[in-house]
Amino acid sequence: MKFYIKREIFANTLSDYTLILKDNPVKPILAGLKIEVKDRKIIFIGTNLESTLIKTVEGDIKREGTVIVKPQLILEYVKLLDDEEIEVSLSENNLKVHQAEFVTLSDEGYPKIKEMVPLEITKTDKDIFTGSLEKCKFSAHPLPENLALNCVRILFRNKFTEFVSTDSYRLTYLKEDIPCSLEKEFSVPLESVNAMIKLLKEASSDITIGFSDNMLILLWEGSYFTTRTTELPFPDFKGILAYNGFDKTMEFNTNEFKSALKKVMTVAKTSNETKYGAVFDFKNKNLVIKTFSGKGKITQKVNMLKEGEDFKGSLNTKFLLEFLNNISNNIMVRGTNASSMFEISEYGNKDYRYILMPLALRS
Q1: Whole-number Å distance between alpha carbons of 265 and 296
Q2: Distance (Å, whole) CA 54 – CA 75
Q3: CATH architecture under which domain 243-356 falls
Q4: Window from 37-41, 76-80, 259-263 with minimum mean pLDDT
Q5: Could you read off the pLDDT of 79-94 as tens digits, one per residue?
Q6: Which strands sit side by side in the sheet containing 94-97, from one edge to the other?
Q7: Pairing mode, if any, of strands 215-220 and 223-228?
């Protein structure tokens, strides 16, 4: 095997595979990246059995062949090279890259990977799709032990697409203008969501989204990505979103609110009682945010427009800030009392909503 490839293309391709290829003590071969040179194509194949990425790139092919290597060390080396084009060749049990050699892996036990022909759901702009995932994924349960919540639920509808995530303490809902030819629902593991966002950032074209059985499939310029989806039941979020008993509405300048929250968080994050917790006192034309810990206390005021009576509630400042970081217009906060859920949204946008449960803090 021997080929020449542009250094930038090689580095970017290797970098993509570090997203899904990790050391696997049970099946070490799954840490390997297969490089196939045949039919005038350079094909990269990697899988962890949950996600698979196949990329076809251009290069100057001299000899065909196949090799399996770990990509991480090769990537570090390639990034340090100055040459625009580099030589890659197979010599006995080593892969020679430029002036360095890397140990290859035996292909024994390597999974047989075959591209599935998906049933097409939609074609869409990759920035709209990845942006929607970014705006929603932060409220998914962070640990894979909770499979039912460690995901983003994607609901493909005829005229739009919905994105939902929850960790049981909060819920994010987003409806995006992505029409679909088929109606399907999938829970995509958070690790796969993060991989898709990073992989698609470098894409320069629209993407095709489809499925085969319980696999979600994404296709774009020379790339094929599949991920297994979670088949555990996702919580019934529609009833939560349908609640309309809020009798208090507050409006804030988002930048002013964010500035105050960041200051409060410097103390709130040190609290042993409830990390990141603070008391929010909605009174007259001002919101007063207070928190304290064994290391300090802080009070911040934020101007607001309010409809309804004064009231207090305790919220997680970190959770609140994570939603604010995804909006640019004024923030709207709706509530009922200190023990009921809050609804947070962006002014003029009913398609992006955030439900946040209150904390039980001393005021």
Answers
A1: 11
A2: 17
A3: Roll (3.10)
A4: 37-41
A5: 999 999 999 999 888 9
A6: 60-63, 2-6, 85-91, 94-97, 100-103
A7: antiparallel
Nearest to 186 by CA among 140, 220, 152: 152
Segment 236-245, tens digit of pLDDT = 999 999 998 9
Nearest-angstrom CA–CA distance, 118 and 138: 29
How many angstroms separate the CA atoms of 52 and 155, rounded? Answer: 22
CATH classification (class only), 119-239: alpha beta
Is 339:265 a contact under the CB 8 Å cutoff? Answer: no
Strand partners, 228: 215
Helix (H, G, I), strand (E, B) or coil at 153: strand
Apex 114 CA angle, 112 and 118, nearest 5: 150
Beta-carbon contacts of residue 321 (< 8 Å; ≥ 6 apart): 258, 261, 262, 265
Query: Looking at the domain 2-103, which fold is it?
Result: DNA Polymerase III; Chain A, domain 2 (3.10.150)
Q: What is the dihedral of CA 120, 126, 127, 131, to 10 degrees?
A: 50
CA distances from 301 to 138, 254, 258, 292, 362 (A): 27, 13, 12, 15, 19
pLDDT at residue 135 in the model = 98
Which residues touch 133 (CB under 8 Å, ≥6 apart)? 152, 163, 193, 196, 197
Beta strand spans in 77-235 (E): 85-91, 94-97, 100-103, 119-124, 151-156, 161-166, 170-176, 184-189, 207-212, 215-220, 223-228
Q: Which residue intervals of the chain bear CATH 3.10.150.10?
A: 2-103, 119-239, 243-356
Distance CA 212, CA 217 (A): 7
Close Cβ partners of 245 (under 8 Å, ≥ 6 residues apart): 336, 340
